[in-house]
Fold:
Amino acid sequence: EVRLVESGGALVQPGGSLTLSCVASGFSFGTTAMTWGRQAAPDTGIEWVSWIYSDGRGTDYADGVKGRFTTSRDNTKNTLYLHMNNLGLEDTEMYYCISGLNVCGTRGQGTQVTVSS
Structure:
């Protein structure tokens, strides 16, 4: 069974930083590209944030986070990361890690990031 467990979400002030983690199990994480997505509200679609190739050598980011967010992975720990800097109010969303190169794959339960002063 594919399982993805995100953590690291928190309340942070504007301009602050956070690192999200996602521990994967139940599939070959080391050979699977992974995606981060986010969702503003339960009745809205999931917005693509970034993806990373299975070997970690290729990444891409949505324009709104480029230069502020970095995704990485540790295949020895089956863990995906999203390092977020200079957070703004617009980054307040539920963040999901998703298997595959788009937001349509299997995702975890999410971790909430709230940016507020």
Q: What stands out?
A: The chain has no helices and ten strands. The CA atoms of residues 40 and 93 lie 5 Å apart.
